[in-house]
Design a protein that fits this description.
Elements lengths: L2 E5 L2 E5 L24 E7 L2 E7 L1 H8 L14 E11 L8 E14 L10 E9 L4 E4 L16 H4 L16
Antiparallel strand pairs: 1-2, 3-4, 4-5, 5-6, 6-7, 7-8
Length: 173
Amino acid sequence: MSIAVLAAGVAISAQDKYTVQVPNGLAFSEFRGYEDWPVIAISENEGLIAVIVGNPAMIGAYKEGVPGNGKPFPDGAKMAKIHWTPKKQEAYPGQPSVPGMQHDVDFMVKDSKRFADSGGWGWGAFDYDAASDMFKPSTAASKPPQENDAKCGFACHTVVQNRDYVFTEYGKR
């Protein structure tokens, strides 16, 4: 679904981000509401800052000690990692960077049946284009380069197979 806006007599269609999906079916719509999920952690990587958020199943598993207790995350656990290009805080010079323009959003979902051949996880990476206010599946041309199917994170995440393929630490609160 898209929303049409009439500007100077020309219809402009805005993307409904929930219609975008990567090959093999992983869709943005599977993460509806991620914008309001609780924070798992923050990170910085390759010049971008990020917040990693989780749905209730993911947060509950972390609170029970997963993956440090040797148990896997449950099916239905979901994470979103939202990346921004950092900018300096203008109101208080000299302070740390804050989120600037959104760069992309990455998703992970645990579904051991659907993604049995990728450690039970499905991945999706979506680049954001601020000029058009639209998302599209990341590709090998993206920065950083990404495969663009539901297994796009598997090769990278195999180094943390003993953590159920999850890099992110849940900080003590």
